Amino acid sequence: MKPIEEFINKVICGDVLEVLSQIPNSCIDLGITSPPYNKKEKHGGWLVPKVVYTGAKDKREEEDYQSWQVEVLDELYRITKEGGSFFYNHKVRYENRKMIHPISWLVKTKWTIWQEIIWHRKIAGNIRGWRFWQVEERIYWLVKGKPEELKPRHAKLTSVWEIRPEQSHKDHPAVFPIELPTRIIYSVLEDKPGTVIDPFCGTGTTLVASKLLNKDFIGIDISQEYVQYAIKRLENAESEKPRVISEINKHIVELTFEKRKKMGLWDKRIKNK
Ligand SMILES: C[S@@+](CC[C@H](N)C(=O)[O-])C[C@H]1O[C@@H](n2cnc3c(N)ncnc32)[C@H](O)[C@@H]1O
Fold first, then answer.
1. What average pLDDT score do residues 35-50 get?
2. Is the distance from CB of 124 to CB of 133 less than 8 angstroms?
């Protein structure tokens, strides 16, 4: 293992398990990631291009894939501080008429599943009619111990997040919209300092959001091309600030209970019942 300082604010090119094994215990506050989904590099629909990465195949036996994800999540658990969180984005897949649900391997990890968040992408990945169009992905809030309570201005954003998929950064097939890691980091860490990790960081969206929110970050990706892209994005991070600010501006409580009472809104609701 190496001292944590060697990883801070770096984008490391390497295999996720090899790099994680060098990071010391209990030093990360928050993690966010979207791993490869084992979509077997098939088309997502006749209008949707297939997901192919430059540095790794997304094509494993399903059993092998799930054990790999458990191993990665348990390594992430080891390096996370007590009270820390990890937000894991995945989706329900259908293969050979069988549903494959992320819960089936998440329950095998050391993490406590704190919440399932629906990411309503408002656009379907598969536009054939074999099933109702799947417009959602999932984000699992995983915790080590007990997290701090969310402030109302964050919690009121609910467990259904309406965020459209990213349209720019066409050099990568599966980029996060920056609003997504921004929402997580700002809700969980607020203005506190902390270290955020993305172990499958791709173009570095989580890292750019962390930098703009004044957090330290660690990114890992196996593709040299994506690591270089992430480094360039971090250098130009300020250009992405308007979208980060516009997400932060959604974290407000317009009418507190106190204000509602003063305006008589609370009494009215009770009287109407
Ligand atoms: C869904 S993408 C993440 C995209 C990222 N959220 C973004 O906003 O750009 C998954 C990433 O995992 C990387 N990857 C695949 N296998 C890996 C491995 N064994 N170790 C590290 N990274 C890997 C791929 O190169 C790909 O960039």
1. 70
2. yes
